């Protein structure tokens, strides 16, 4: 009888504390990762998942102290290693992919210089061998012109391409363990899936194990063999991915699974109603990049867009980065000038609105932004921020104060929040304030631009429920902009799919999700699962419109049921 090989990574009773205080941010965490295995650590902000992973590399912040336990990599206790030995281990035997590659790529060095340095530090290859290895790896990660990439600078690439370059840099020394901290959170659905499949493929080829940090349970279901669930610094549950998702044992795991977006019934809208908002042949051009002796060529962001939104209707605009969806929302909100076309509201042209007509449009059209911290004045309390939106409505001070109190209550905040400032609130609470500020004027149209993309799973679910409840209660129409089709499926009456500044498909929600006609829509939908509840309080995930059965993952295939 053969014994199993020792784990590649063995974490025993790890405790991390803040400074000299008694507060623990990771409390007696124990887990293992074996060679070739993909293990996902999931949890919300503050769960301790990122700190636990960074401790594996010796990269915890200065204020965080190891209070107990041991971390062994390939049998070596990290606490016994000298700084030089730890540096050799980090980047050589252990690689790390961060959430935002621009924080780990040096903006002052070309890509070629950075890849060359990484390889020279951790291998014995000569200059010619290093160059050949770098070119081969860049081609392997899908960058078809490696010579141009090597001469370029980090800022010249999109987020998805930068993450591919980071993967190339980390995988060049062929590490035994890859730590990936939310590696695709900032990317849209299609690029996210492409990058993850590339990462899984690269690590499978080299036999590299992966410790993946994520809050995205759908991603975890597709790509991991085992799952570790963390809550408030403790591991509350761990086991095979399929087992955890289908039959979660801990209430917190069930809460996370229950918060995943899923299709719900939405109020019907009469298609015979005249449009509240109508966009006709809308064109937007941005000034191109100019040189010393040449003018910049205009870049077209929107190509002749036609769109109608009826009263009480939720129209979702979805697409990847650069699709033009945010530009469309900003034009309708009059935050961006159009280069051509028409915008009508309630049967009247908006582009030429002045005076009272413009004031009425500002009252009737409100916007909720992605980052409430950037849209709320840090010098104003919650009550002042919401009350500011009521200026020009004709309400006296007493009526205005009553409306503010009502709005605070409506969005699920307590009366005591009225005197707090934005920095004293959580991300979810700040977004509730932003929503209250938008609906307090009783608008007829709300434009929501990625309003939940920066929130944790359970907070996102609460905000979506709140938004749907307010929309039904007040009856406003909504243009909901998102790259996340799972969120859209929960809210929308109708879905508009944009790609490279054009509408490629639009129709009722169920039609778009169940019978997509355009190949790009199918690619977007392939990145999200359909959820089916299990009798044990878990979920069964079915991958949609997925003809590719080659994707590695916990269940062995990418099509059919992943977990």
From TrEMBL:
Composition-biased stretches (Low complexity): 550-563
Gene Ontology molecular function: ATP binding; ATP hydrolysis activity
Cleavable signal peptide: none
GO biological process, alphabetically ordered: peptide transport; transmembrane transport
InterPro entries (alphabetical): AAA+_ATPase (IPR003593), ABC_transp_ATP-bind (IPR050319), ABC_transporter-like_ATP-bd (IPR003439), ABC_transporter-like_CS (IPR017871), Oligopep_ABC_C (IPR013563), P-loop_NTPase (IPR027417)
UniProt keywords, alphabetically: ATP-binding, Cell membrane, Membrane, Nucleotide-binding, Transport
Organism this protein belongs to: Variovorax paradoxus
Region (Disordered): 532-563
Protein name: Peptide ABC transporter ATP-binding protein
Pfam entry (one): oligo_HPY
């Amino acid at each position: 009888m053969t014994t199993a090989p020792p784990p590649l990574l063995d974490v025993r009773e790890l405790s991390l504390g803040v400074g000299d205080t008694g507060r623990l941010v990771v409390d007696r965490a124990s887990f293992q990762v074996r060679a070739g295995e993909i293990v996902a650590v999931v949890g919300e902000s503050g769960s301790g998942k990122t700190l636990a992973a960074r401790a594996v590399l010796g990269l915890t912040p200065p204020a965080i102290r190891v209070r107990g336990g041991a971390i062994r990599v390939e049998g070596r206790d990290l606490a016994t290693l000298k700084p030089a030995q730890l540096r050799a281990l980090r980047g050589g035997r252990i690689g790390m992919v961060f959430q935002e590659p621009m924080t780990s790529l040096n903006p002052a060095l070309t890509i070629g210089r950075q890849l060359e340095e990484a390889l020279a530090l951790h291998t014995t290859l000569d200059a010619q061998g290093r160059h050949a290895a770098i070119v081969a790896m860049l081609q392997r990660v899908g960058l078809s012109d490696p010579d141009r990439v090597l001469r370029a600078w980090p800022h010249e690439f999109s987020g998805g391409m930068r993450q591919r370059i980071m993967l190339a840099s980390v995988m060049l020394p062929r590490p035994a363990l890859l730590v990936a901290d939310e590696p695709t959170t900032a990317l849209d659905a299609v690029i996210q899936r492409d990058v993850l499949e590339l990462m899984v493929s690269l690590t499978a080829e080299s036999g590299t194990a992966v410790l993946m940090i994520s809050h995205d349970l759908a991603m975890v279901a597709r790509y991991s063999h085992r799952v570790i669930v963390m809550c408030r610094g403790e591991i509350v549950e761990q086991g095979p991915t399929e087992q955890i998702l289908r039959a979660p044992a801990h209430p917190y795991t069930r809460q996370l699974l229950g918060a995943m977006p899923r299709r719900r019934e939405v109020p019907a809208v009469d298609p015979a109603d005249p449009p509240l908002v109508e966009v006709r042949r809308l064109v937007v051009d941005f000034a191109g990049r100019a040189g010393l002796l040449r003018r910049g060529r205009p870049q077209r962001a929107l190509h002749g867009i036609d769109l109608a939104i009826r009263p009480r209707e939720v129209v979702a605009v979805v697409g990847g980065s650069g699709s033009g969806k945010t530009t469309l929302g900003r034009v309708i909100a009059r935050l961006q000038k159009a280069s051509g076309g028409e915008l009508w509201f309630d049967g009247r042209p908006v582009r030429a609105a002045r005076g009272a007509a413009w004031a009425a449009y500002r009252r009737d059209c409100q916007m909720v932004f992605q980052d409430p911290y950037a849209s709320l004045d840090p010098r104003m309390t919650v009550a002042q921020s919401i009350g500011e939106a009521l200026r020009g409505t004709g309400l006296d001070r007493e009526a205005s104060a009553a409306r503010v109190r009502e709005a605070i209550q409506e969005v699920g905040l307590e009366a005591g929040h009225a005197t707090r400032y934005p920095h004293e609130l959580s991300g979810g609470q700040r977004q509730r304030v932003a929503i209250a500020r938008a609906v307090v004027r009783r608008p007829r149209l709300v434009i929501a631009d990625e309003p939940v993309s920066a929130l944790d799973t359970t907070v996102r679910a609460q905000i979506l429920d709140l938004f749907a409840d307010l929309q039904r209660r007040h009856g406003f129409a909504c243009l909901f902009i998102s790259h996340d089709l799972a969120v859209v499926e929960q809210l929308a009456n109708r879905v508009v799919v944009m790609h490279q500044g054009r509408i490629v498909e639009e129709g009722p929600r169920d039609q778009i999700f169940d019978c997509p006609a355009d190949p790009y829509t199918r690619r977007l939908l392939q990145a999200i699962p359909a959820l089916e509840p299990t009798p044990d309080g878990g979920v069964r995930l079915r991958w949609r419109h997925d003809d590719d059965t080659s994707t590695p993952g916990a269940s062995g295939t990418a099509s059919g049921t992943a977990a």
